[in-house]
Amino acid sequence: MGGLGLIVTGAPIWVWPLLVLLVVVGLRATRQREALALPLYFLPLLGVLSINAVSRFQAGWEVWALFALAYVFGGRVGFGFQKGVLLNKSGRRVRLRGEWLTFGLMMVVFWMNFTGGVMRAVAPAVYNGNGFQFGFAVIAGLAAGVFLGRAMWVFTASPQQA
Predict the structure, then answer these.
(1) Is the pLDDT of residue 9 over 60?
(2) What is the pTM of this model?
(3) pLDDT on residue 2
(4) pLDDT digits (tens, 9 = 90+) for 89-130
(5) Cβ pair 145, 74 in contact under 8 A
(6) Number of neighbouring beta carbons within 10 Å of residue 22
(7) Which residue of 1, 10, 41, 161 pairs with 5 in a disulfide if CB–CB is 3.0 to 4.6 A?
(8) Which stretches of 56-100 are DSSP H helices?
(9) Which pLDDT belongs to residue 91?
(10) Crossing angle for the helix pair 130-156 and 61-83, nearest 10 degrees?
(11) Do 112 and 56 touch, CB atoms closer than 8 A?
């Protein structure tokens, strides 16, 4: 079996159903929809995957500083972006415009964590290098922060703002 086959079969079994779930949820977000607001508040938990991945790095405070700065910046971007997505908020329900950012961010979080695991296993020198770790921390922080900012906009928006 080739390298790609080993990577696919070597991944934990739960990875593939998670990918399917993220694709389904992400594709659903591309269409205008009415939904409960509560699940939107849990999307920032995808950032926990990133925090867990960054915590495995050997680099010091610089990685965490980059992650934190990117997280804050991503939060600001997500907060502003969500203003154009939230069409209506009524009680516990929201009506949202279809958009591709949710799908894209879910794929970024999933594939970054997957790539991190693969690199740790097959190319530890690259994985332990500052370039990989700093780049990973910035991209992971941005993605996680955007989810938080979007959830904060939905939480704080009044029905008049939506």
Answers:
(1) yes
(2) 0.84
(3) 59
(4) 998 899 999 999 999 999 998 998 899 888 988 899 999 999
(5) yes
(6) 19
(7) 1
(8) 61-83
(9) 85
(10) 30
(11) no
Is-contact 113 49, C-beta < 8 A? Answer: yes
Element (H, E) at 93: strand 93-96
Task: Name the burial class of residue 115, with classes exposed (0-12), middle (13-18) and buried (19+) by CB atoms within 10 angstroms of its CB.
Answer: middle
Closest CA to 144 of 85, 78, 91: 78
What values do phi and psi take at 8, rounded to 5?
A: -65, -45
- Measured distance CA(120)–CA(139) in Å, rounded: 17
Rounded CA-CA distance 8/20 in Å is 14
pLDDT of residue 160: 61
The Cβ of residue 145 has, within 10 Å, a number of other Cβ atoms equal to 26
What are the angstrom distances between the C-alpha of 90 and each of 45, 94, 109, 144?
A: 24, 6, 30, 26
Could you give the dihedral angle defined by the CA atoms of residues 38, 43, 47 and 52, in that order, rounded to the nearest 10 degrees? 80
Place of tokens 């530890």: 124
Tokens representing residue 11 in the block = 């991944």
Q: Please check whether residue 53 is in contact with residue 136, taking contact to mean a CB–CB distance below 8 angstroms.
A: yes
